[in-house]
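Homework-ish question, so no full write-ups if that breaks the rules, but can someone show me the predicted structure for this set?
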Amino acid sequence: MMRGAVLRTLTSFTAYLQVGLRASRAYLFDCVIGLATYPIEVAITYLMWRLFLTEGAGAMTHREALAYYALALLVARVGPSRFVSFRLESEIASGGLALYLVRPAVPWAAIAGRELAPAVVNLVVLTPVAFLVTTVALGRLPGVGGFAFLMVLAVGVQTLLRLIVGTAAFWMLQIMGLVHAVDLVVRLASGGVLPLTVFSAGVADALAWTPFPLLVWVPIQAMMGRLEPPGVAWHGAIGLFWLVALLAVFLALWRKGVRGYVGYGT
Amino acid sequence: MAAADLAIDVRDLRRSFRRRKKPLAGAGWLRSALRGFEAVEALAGVTFQVARGEVVAYVGPNGSGKSTTIKCLTGILVPSSGHVECLGMVPWRQRLEYTARIGVLFGQKSLLFWDLPVRDAIEVYRRIYGVGGDRFRNWLEQFDALFGLGKLLDRRVYTLSLGERMRCEVAASFLHRPSVLFLDEPTIGLDAQAKDAVRQLLSELHRSEGLTVLLTTHQMEEVETLATRLVVLAAGRVAFDGSPGELRARYLPVKRARITFSAVRDAERLGQALAGCRVLERGYDMLQLEIPSGHEIARLTAWLLEALEVIDLEISDPPMDQVMLAVYGGVP
Amino acid sequence: MSGFAPPGPQPCDARSPAARNRDLLLAHFRVNLARHAAYPVSLILEQLSYLVGLVVSLVLWRHLFTRLPTFAGWSFDDVLVLHLFGNLFLALFHSLFMGFHSFHAIVRNGRLDTWLARPVDPRIAHLAASLKPEELLNRLLALVPLILYMRSRGIELDAGRLAAGLAAMLVGLAAFACIQLVWCYAAFWLDKSDAILAFLDLFYGFYRFPLDALPGVAQLALTLAAPLLLAVTYPARFAAGGASWTSLLAVCAASLAVLAGWAWAQERLWRAGLDAYQSPGG
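A: Not a homework solution, just the prediction itself:
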């Protein structure tokens, strides 16, 4: 029974991922615009925060700072966006969830699959760009193996966080404020806005036990060659723990929400 | 028809849409994505007029251009070319002034706000159309008498049945007393009882108000109940314009006869009679026939009465759906 | 049915288009407020979310100012004023102009039809339908702790400068809303325009950042494309006492020029868009 549930979840995820990928291909112009904005986003973010990164304790060089944001924004785009939460909210509020519930599909896996498709496109197209920027900026080849392993975990954890926030729509009329607040906390605590070295050692140590650094900071450290294999394994173990814990939390919330769900609007 | 008597005047109306030539797939998808568009002509020279107070059904198969015409007539779409004038105005040029005098009901696009009580949407439309207190009370009383609108006003839209919602939609589209009402599939998805209620409501409004109505629908019984004239559209052109009777006469000039009998009296005569008709169904005590219209009917019927020990005889027009199939199939 | 008034235009509706738009906005404001007031728990949770966002941002900036004494001429107290302006900007934009942010959706799904077939300007009608009075209330309430915190730090803003700064912000806000609408019109011609709008959304994240720390070229590009500098950064700097009245006038003039340019483009594209509109969805 457990095996069947896992299989159905994977089938739902991959089926809707394919739908998302087809949409990316069908809306080519939109997809290209999305990719083209990546270097602009990297440039603006770097220009904004460069003063904080290149001065004071634990300062980076300008090249390192540029490489950091090229990677941080790559990681952000390869992971699920906040639209996973919004899509879940929209399906719950509009009654669209009912259309998933009457099929032998796992709704949340389907929604996550559909919304992760742009991330796959970003992974394929932007990763070489980020690698190139990192190689030129650091003057050496980035470490790919540890990065890839940690990114898989990061995408899983991030997806579950987004889904957990989305389930709030079972009980709230709109979740925009919650999504933005969680987004801000996650981006700060994961190193998405500023490297975690900016914070004091105590804060950084406390964050190490949370799932957040795994989302951005840890994969970047692996890519920049600052994480040895034992470090990768340690962070991998923490990531696995959080993956299981968040899945349990999400499934509990999901079951509770679906039990009280009223499929209006269809 | 004099210009003053015309509510709607459409001449050589054309409208094209930009469509992708083929789905984005295969080796040439990049080229298709960038340059693979073509113009598709949805309306290829439509001409018809509607007099004030007339109820006209505008019918045709899916994709024939019905909704496109309605959208051009309601100021939503700008035609590619041609002349469109309603109530003496050009819809897309004088949109604000014109839309204040028409009512539009899209069966598939609700006027109401799904998560709010009906009253809230009505309140917004009151503001849009500037319906004052007296006129509003008058409207409310009349629709309450027609179908008990008052009971529905404070219910959230998502708690209404489809039939109740459509009645509220009709009432809302009538709030400002339009001179012309455009109905785009007003009974789509409704059950028989709700359809009947909406039709009666529209019929009553037309009778008492002298309203001009242009109705698009696939429900042919709706056409027969409400409309005195049909405009049939096929592939963006008017294929027929006339009364339901004229349509039958042109496209399916037959009658249907259903005979129940206890015995055959004269087999030879029966054979003679059947040779002139098409047998649709034959049982041991029943015959269903299609008889060509005209003076043949009387002779064939006489022969059948002579040949059979008739218990019951019923002669009727074929259902309008059959007529439309003949029209769409191009059968003369 | 004999009690019915005769069909035709409403004799009592002698309102000007502006009055009609005002009535429409007010009606939706009331209706939408009632819609959200029916869910008080949701409102309170939203309120908490805004507070958390604000507190986290302030904690970050407080920490950053322990590393650097000033940032491109901004002190921590100045950044608090920036947060006040930034949050106010966002409160007004999100609660009043979300209709311009989501206009592309109704062009793509054909809901624009329901407004085109009525005697209203569809832009105003959609703006009215998208009003979020509860969000205005919630976001403004979330500013109360910020104002109290500023007072506790002895930050006293000059009333004249504050009012002038807010006026400048409103002009910038109008320009921003206009730009948003222009990009939404891409939906008249493109199958999908989400990426363009997502890119524009990126700039909302910068409202708490002193954007005048960017290089000149980036500032100019931002001023023309997404004038947060004109709407938030410069007015906040002025209100905090870090700029002269002359520079505020220059900012207002620049805002008006940007607004006029984009408003002109908006009107042209709207008309062209209506000609090209395909009314999807049967």
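Now go work out the reasoning yourself. Hint: Chain A touches chain B at residues 25-26, 28-29, 95, 264-265 (CB under 8 Å).
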